[in-house]
Amino acid sequence: MTDTLVIYYSFTGNSKKVAEYVKDKLNADILELEPKIPFSDDYDTVVEE
Length: 49
Description:
Layout: E1 5-8, H1 14-26, E2 29-32, H2 43-48
Parallel strand pairs: 1-2
């Protein structure tokens, strides 16, 4: 266990890749946020919400 935690949410997977890179560079723990109610798969619908 480390003193650093990388917390992220990734709609398309891009943020996940960046978060994992940062985790590796900092030797940190990582936590993915998951919405209680899943977002639509359609990006435009998500933006409207």
